[in-house]
Design brief:
By secondary structure, the chain is an all-beta fold. The chain is built from 1 helix and 24 strands. The strands form 6 sheets. The chain has a 4-stranded antiparallel β-sheet with strand order 1-24-23-22, with no helix packed on it. The protein has a 4-stranded antiparallel β-sheet with strand order 2-3-4-5, with no helix packed on it.
Length: about 300
Protein backbone atom coordinates (compact mmCIF):
# COMPACT_ATOMS: atom_id res chain seq x y z
CA UNK A 1 0.00 0.00 0.00
CA UNK A 2 1.13 3.55 -0.56
CA UNK A 3 -0.20 7.06 -0.22
CA UNK A 4 -1.84 8.26 -3.46
CA UNK A 5 -3.69 11.51 -2.70
CA UNK A 6 -4.86 13.74 0.10
CA UNK A 7 -7.07 16.73 0.75
CA UNK A 8 -6.96 19.24 3.53
CA UNK A 9 -10.13 20.55 5.16
CA UNK A 10 -9.96 24.32 4.70
CA UNK A 11 -12.23 27.26 4.00
CA UNK A 12 -11.76 26.66 0.29
CA UNK A 13 -14.57 24.09 0.40
CA UNK A 14 -17.50 24.72 -1.90
CA UNK A 15 -20.23 27.07 -0.71
CA UNK A 16 -22.89 24.36 -0.88
CA UNK A 17 -20.85 22.09 1.37
CA UNK A 18 -19.96 24.90 3.78
CA UNK A 19 -23.64 25.60 4.27
CA UNK A 20 -24.13 22.05 5.42
CA UNK A 21 -21.43 22.27 8.10
CA UNK A 22 -23.64 23.79 10.81
CA UNK A 23 -22.67 21.58 13.74
CA UNK A 24 -20.76 23.74 16.20
CA UNK A 25 -18.10 21.29 17.36
CA UNK A 26 -16.29 18.21 16.10
CA UNK A 27 -18.36 15.73 14.07
CA UNK A 28 -17.61 12.33 15.59
CA UNK A 29 -19.62 9.99 13.36
CA UNK A 30 -21.26 9.61 9.95
CA UNK A 31 -23.62 6.96 8.61
CA UNK A 32 -24.94 6.71 5.05
CA UNK A 33 -28.24 4.95 4.43
CA UNK A 34 -28.30 2.25 1.76
CA UNK A 35 -32.10 2.49 1.39
CA UNK A 36 -32.72 6.24 1.57
CA UNK A 37 -30.93 9.36 0.24
CA UNK A 38 -29.98 10.24 3.81
CA UNK A 39 -26.72 10.95 5.58
CA UNK A 40 -26.70 10.96 9.39
CA UNK A 41 -24.15 12.83 11.48
CA UNK A 42 -23.43 13.10 15.20
CA UNK A 43 -21.36 15.70 16.98
CA UNK A 44 -19.78 16.70 20.28
CA UNK A 45 -22.41 19.46 20.58
CA UNK A 46 -25.03 16.73 21.41
CA UNK A 47 -26.66 17.03 17.98
CA UNK A 48 -27.77 14.23 15.67
CA UNK A 49 -28.79 15.38 12.17
CA UNK A 50 -30.41 13.73 9.18
CA UNK A 51 -29.26 15.26 5.88
CA UNK A 52 -31.25 14.88 2.66
CA UNK A 53 -28.58 14.46 0.00
CA UNK A 54 -31.01 15.31 -2.81
CA UNK A 55 -32.17 18.58 -1.25
CA UNK A 56 -28.78 19.36 0.30
CA UNK A 57 -30.21 20.32 3.69
CA UNK A 58 -31.04 19.08 7.18
CA UNK A 59 -34.49 17.49 7.29
CA UNK A 60 -34.55 16.05 10.84
CA UNK A 61 -32.88 16.66 14.19
CA UNK A 62 -32.84 14.16 17.04
CA UNK A 63 -32.71 15.57 20.57
CA UNK A 64 -32.13 13.61 23.76
CA UNK A 65 -28.43 13.07 24.41
CA UNK A 66 -27.12 14.94 27.44
CA UNK A 67 -23.55 15.19 26.19
CA UNK A 68 -21.45 14.74 23.07
CA UNK A 69 -22.46 11.98 20.63
CA UNK A 70 -19.50 9.81 19.60
CA UNK A 71 -20.93 6.97 17.50
CA UNK A 72 -23.81 6.29 15.11
CA UNK A 73 -25.13 3.33 13.09
CA UNK A 74 -28.10 2.64 10.80
CA UNK A 75 -30.12 -0.56 11.09
CA UNK A 76 -29.91 -2.46 7.77
CA UNK A 77 -33.62 -3.32 7.53
CA UNK A 78 -35.51 -1.16 10.05
CA UNK A 79 -35.99 2.61 9.86
CA UNK A 80 -34.04 3.27 13.05
CA UNK A 81 -30.62 4.67 13.92
CA UNK A 82 -28.59 4.03 17.07
CA UNK A 83 -26.34 6.65 18.63
CA UNK A 84 -23.95 6.47 21.57
CA UNK A 85 -22.32 9.26 23.51
CA UNK A 86 -20.57 10.62 26.56
CA UNK A 87 -23.75 10.32 28.63
CA UNK A 88 -23.05 6.54 28.69
CA UNK A 89 -26.31 5.81 26.88
CA UNK A 90 -27.05 4.35 23.45
CA UNK A 91 -30.29 5.73 22.05
CA UNK A 92 -32.51 4.16 19.41
CA UNK A 93 -34.31 6.69 17.18
CA UNK A 94 -37.18 6.30 14.74
CA UNK A 95 -35.82 7.93 11.59
CA UNK A 96 -39.16 9.36 10.43
CA UNK A 97 -40.88 10.39 13.67
CA UNK A 98 -37.64 11.41 15.47
CA UNK A 99 -38.88 9.69 18.63
CA UNK A 100 -36.47 8.08 21.09
CA UNK A 101 -37.67 4.46 20.89
CA UNK A 102 -35.27 3.05 23.49
CA UNK A 103 -32.57 4.34 25.81
CA UNK A 104 -30.04 1.52 26.23
CA UNK A 105 -28.55 2.19 29.64
CA UNK A 106 -25.94 0.27 31.60
CA UNK A 107 -22.52 1.43 30.46
CA UNK A 108 -20.38 3.32 32.94
CA UNK A 109 -18.57 5.56 30.46
CA UNK A 110 -18.71 6.94 26.92
CA UNK A 111 -20.28 4.65 24.30
CA UNK A 112 -17.50 4.85 21.73
CA UNK A 113 -18.72 2.39 19.11
CA UNK A 114 -22.06 1.01 17.90
CA UNK A 115 -22.79 -1.90 15.56
CA UNK A 116 -26.15 -3.02 14.21
CA UNK A 117 -27.24 -6.00 12.13
CA UNK A 118 -30.38 -7.74 10.93
CA UNK A 119 -29.97 -10.75 13.23
CA UNK A 120 -29.59 -11.04 16.99
CA UNK A 121 -28.03 -9.26 18.66
CA UNK A 122 -29.32 -6.42 16.51
CA UNK A 123 -27.39 -3.81 18.52
CA UNK A 124 -23.84 -4.11 19.91
CA UNK A 125 -22.22 -1.30 21.89
CA UNK A 126 -18.60 -0.85 22.97
CA UNK A 127 -17.70 1.58 25.73
CA UNK A 128 -14.77 3.37 27.30
CA UNK A 129 -15.64 1.39 30.47
CA UNK A 130 -13.96 -1.57 28.64
CA UNK A 131 -17.21 -3.56 28.27
CA UNK A 132 -19.28 -4.67 25.29
CA UNK A 133 -23.04 -5.10 25.58
CA UNK A 134 -25.33 -7.13 23.32
CA UNK A 135 -28.88 -5.76 23.19
CA UNK A 136 -32.35 -7.08 22.41
CA UNK A 137 -33.63 -4.30 20.17
CA UNK A 138 -37.31 -5.24 20.57
CA UNK A 139 -37.23 -5.18 24.37
CA UNK A 140 -34.52 -2.57 24.75
CA UNK A 141 -32.68 -4.78 27.26
CA UNK A 142 -29.12 -6.02 27.59
CA UNK A 143 -28.76 -9.74 26.81
CA UNK A 144 -25.04 -10.13 27.50
CA UNK A 145 -22.10 -8.13 28.83
CA UNK A 146 -18.58 -9.00 27.67
CA UNK A 147 -15.85 -7.98 30.12
CA UNK A 148 -12.66 -9.49 28.69
CA UNK A 149 -11.20 -6.16 27.54
CA UNK A 150 -9.16 -4.19 30.07
CA UNK A 151 -8.95 -0.90 28.17
CA UNK A 152 -11.43 1.50 26.57
CA UNK A 153 -13.15 0.18 23.45
CA UNK A 154 -13.12 2.77 20.68
CA UNK A 155 -13.87 0.73 17.58
CA UNK A 156 -15.71 -2.40 16.46
CA UNK A 157 -16.33 -3.97 13.07
CA UNK A 158 -18.82 -6.58 11.83
CA UNK A 159 -17.74 -9.35 9.46
CA UNK A 160 -19.56 -9.19 6.12
CA UNK A 161 -20.13 -12.98 5.84
CA UNK A 162 -19.41 -14.65 9.16
CA UNK A 163 -21.69 -14.32 12.17
CA UNK A 164 -18.86 -12.60 14.03
CA UNK A 165 -17.53 -9.18 15.00
CA UNK A 166 -14.28 -7.73 16.31
CA UNK A 167 -13.56 -5.11 18.96
CA UNK A 168 -10.39 -3.09 19.47
CA UNK A 169 -8.84 -1.62 22.60
CA UNK A 170 -5.34 -0.60 23.65
CA UNK A 171 -4.76 -4.06 25.15
CA UNK A 172 -5.62 -6.19 22.09
CA UNK A 173 -8.16 -6.97 19.36
CA UNK A 174 -10.76 -9.60 20.18
CA UNK A 175 -12.99 -11.56 17.81
CA UNK A 176 -16.42 -12.69 19.04
CA UNK A 177 -19.11 -15.04 17.80
CA UNK A 178 -22.74 -13.98 17.70
CA UNK A 179 -25.34 -14.20 19.11
CA UNK A 180 -24.00 -14.83 22.63
CA UNK A 181 -20.58 -13.14 22.32
CA UNK A 182 -18.48 -16.28 22.60
CA UNK A 183 -14.72 -15.40 22.41
CA UNK A 184 -13.08 -16.90 19.34
CA UNK A 185 -9.52 -15.51 19.24
CA UNK A 186 -7.31 -12.59 20.19
CA UNK A 187 -5.13 -10.50 17.90
CA UNK A 188 -2.25 -8.77 19.67
CA UNK A 189 0.59 -6.58 18.51
CA UNK A 190 -0.77 -3.11 17.74
CA UNK A 191 0.43 -1.55 20.97
CA UNK A 192 -1.33 1.81 20.91
CA UNK A 193 -4.82 3.27 21.29
CA UNK A 194 -6.78 1.89 18.33
CA UNK A 195 -9.27 4.47 17.10
CA UNK A 196 -10.61 2.70 14.02
CA UNK A 197 -10.95 -0.68 12.31
CA UNK A 198 -11.96 -1.62 8.78
CA UNK A 199 -12.48 -4.98 7.08
CA UNK A 200 -12.62 -5.57 3.33
CA UNK A 201 -14.08 -8.38 1.25
CA UNK A 202 -10.72 -10.16 1.10
CA UNK A 203 -10.67 -10.52 4.90
CA UNK A 204 -7.97 -7.90 5.38
CA UNK A 205 -8.44 -6.18 8.73
CA UNK A 206 -6.91 -2.73 9.13
CA UNK A 207 -6.43 -1.01 12.47
CA UNK A 208 -5.54 2.67 12.80
CA UNK A 209 -3.75 3.94 15.88
CA UNK A 210 -3.37 7.15 17.83
CA UNK A 211 0.33 7.24 16.94
CA UNK A 212 -0.28 7.26 13.18
CA UNK A 213 0.37 3.58 12.56
CA UNK A 214 -1.79 1.27 10.47
CA UNK A 215 -1.54 -2.49 10.85
CA UNK A 216 -2.85 -4.91 8.23
CA UNK A 217 -4.00 -8.29 9.55
CA UNK A 218 -5.27 -11.54 8.10
CA UNK A 219 -8.74 -11.94 9.64
CA UNK A 220 -8.59 -15.72 10.07
CA UNK A 221 -5.07 -16.16 11.42
CA UNK A 222 -4.47 -12.79 13.05
CA UNK A 223 -1.16 -12.52 11.21
CA UNK A 224 0.18 -8.96 10.85
CA UNK A 225 1.51 -8.95 7.28
CA UNK A 226 2.03 -5.21 6.77
CA UNK A 227 2.53 -1.96 8.70
CA UNK A 228 2.39 1.68 7.64
CA UNK A 229 3.36 4.89 9.42
CA UNK A 230 1.30 7.77 8.04
CA UNK A 231 2.98 11.04 7.07
CA UNK A 232 1.54 14.18 8.70
CA UNK A 233 0.57 17.13 6.51
CA UNK A 234 3.48 19.60 6.10
CA UNK A 235 3.19 22.24 8.79
CA UNK A 236 1.48 19.88 11.24
CA UNK A 237 2.92 18.80 14.56
CA UNK A 238 4.37 15.33 14.93
CA UNK A 239 1.67 14.53 17.49
CA UNK A 240 -1.00 15.15 14.83
CA UNK A 241 -0.35 11.87 13.07
CA UNK A 242 -3.25 10.01 14.71
CA UNK A 243 -5.69 8.06 12.54
CA UNK A 244 -9.27 8.66 13.66
CA UNK A 245 -11.39 7.00 10.94
CA UNK A 246 -10.97 4.49 8.12
CA UNK A 247 -13.14 2.84 5.50
CA UNK A 248 -12.69 0.62 2.45
CA UNK A 249 -14.49 1.64 -0.73
CA UNK A 250 -16.99 -0.71 -2.41
CA UNK A 251 -14.24 -2.35 -4.47
CA UNK A 252 -12.21 -3.12 -1.30
CA UNK A 253 -9.14 -1.90 -3.21
CA UNK A 254 -8.96 1.61 -1.76
CA UNK A 255 -8.61 2.53 1.88
CA UNK A 256 -9.75 5.99 2.99
CA UNK A 257 -8.51 7.44 6.28
CA UNK A 258 -9.40 10.56 8.23
CA UNK A 259 -6.51 11.83 10.32
CA UNK A 260 -5.63 14.22 13.11
CA UNK A 261 -3.77 16.59 10.78
CA UNK A 262 -7.10 17.51 9.12
CA UNK A 263 -6.46 15.42 6.01
CA UNK A 264 -8.29 12.65 4.21
CA UNK A 265 -5.85 10.18 2.65
CA UNK A 266 -6.62 7.56 0.02
CA UNK A 267 -4.43 4.46 -0.08
CA UNK A 268 -4.22 1.80 -2.77
CA UNK A 269 -2.43 -1.48 -3.26
CA UNK A 270 1.16 -1.36 -4.47
CA UNK A 271 1.07 -2.91 -7.99
CA UNK A 272 4.82 -3.58 -7.87
CA UNK A 273 4.66 -5.71 -4.71
CA UNK A 274 5.75 -9.34 -5.15
CA UNK A 275 6.33 -12.29 -2.79
CA UNK A 276 10.04 -11.49 -3.08
CA UNK A 277 9.76 -7.80 -2.12
CA UNK A 278 7.17 -8.43 0.61
CA UNK A 279 7.83 -11.97 1.90
CA UNK A 280 5.53 -13.59 4.45
CA UNK A 281 7.45 -14.96 7.42
CA UNK A 282 5.72 -18.24 8.10
CA UNK A 283 7.62 -18.77 11.33
CA UNK A 284 5.77 -15.81 12.85
CA UNK A 285 2.33 -17.27 12.17
CA UNK A 286 0.28 -18.61 15.09
CA UNK A 287 0.33 -22.42 15.39
CA UNK A 288 -3.41 -22.61 14.60
CA UNK A 289 -2.76 -21.08 11.17
CA UNK A 290 -0.47 -23.82 9.85
CA UNK A 291 -0.52 -25.28 7.30
CA UNK A 292 -0.97 -22.13 5.19
CA UNK A 293 -1.81 -22.11 1.50
CA UNK A 294 -0.32 -19.15 -0.38
CA UNK A 295 -1.94 -17.94 -3.58
Amino acid sequence: FFFSSRRRHTRSASVSWARRCVQETAVRGLALSARHPYLFSCSEDKSVYCWDLEQNKIVRKYHGHLSGVYSIAIHPTLDVIITGGRDSVARVWDIRTKSNVHSLEGHGDTVGSVLTQEYEPQVITGSYDSTIKLWDLGMGKCMQTLTQHKKAIRSMVMHHEEYTFASAAADKIRVWKCPDGQPLRNIAGHNTIINTMSLNKDNVLVTGGDNGTMYFWDWQSGYNFHQIQTIPQPGSLSCEAGIFASLFDLSSLRLITGECDKTIKIWKEDPTATPQTHPIKLTHLPPVQLPLTLK
